[in-house]
Amino acid sequence: MQAILLIFVGGGIGSLLRYGLSRWISGLVVSAFPYGTFFVNIIGCFLIGFIVFYTERYGTQSQPWRLFLVTGLCGGFTTFSSFSLENSQLITDHRVFVFMLYAAGSVFLGLAATYLGVLAGRSI
Fold it and tell me: 33, 31, 40: which is closest to 113 by C-alpha?
């Protein structure tokens, strides 16, 4: 029951953070490119890489934190469903270049951010 509560609370916090940060970023830049979701997902990739590596140092004692931060917070913070919807809308709107830039940039920078998170976790 504790695991479910940790994931539930972390997911709620992550979702609220995603909503707020995404709207704030989207309000700064008016563009067809979905900067809000893009940056939220890149930040989330970095955080998940950092948290997973960092919590592995502490073994089973870190399991509650990992459930709260990785499964809950990062799971609620990042959003593949919004990414998919925005890409579908870009294709529907015939914005093929923006679609390719967003899809490729998200995958490449997401993987790079996750790796950088792991490196940052190792350096602490």
Answer: 40
pLDDT, one tens digit per residue, over 6-38 is 999 999 999 999 999 999 999 998 898 999 999
Instruction: Say how far apart CA 70 and CA 48 lie, in whole Å.
Output: 6
The residue type of 39 is F
* Distance of alpha carbon 64 from the chain centroid: 20
The overall longest dimension of the chain from CA atoms, in Å, is 50
d(CA 34, CA 83): 9
Q: What would the pLDDT profile of 72-81 be if each residue is shown by its tens digit? A: 999 999 988 7
67 HSE (CA, 13 A, CB side):
13
Computed on alpha carbons and rounded to an integer, the radius of gyration of the chain in Å comes to 16
What residues contact 33, with CB distance under 8 A and at least 6 apart?
98, 101, 102
Q: Tell me how far CA of residue 54 lies from CA of 7, 67, 122, in angstroms.
A: 18, 13, 7
- For residue 124, the SS3 value is coil
Among 39, 64, 69, which Cα is nearest to 51's? 69
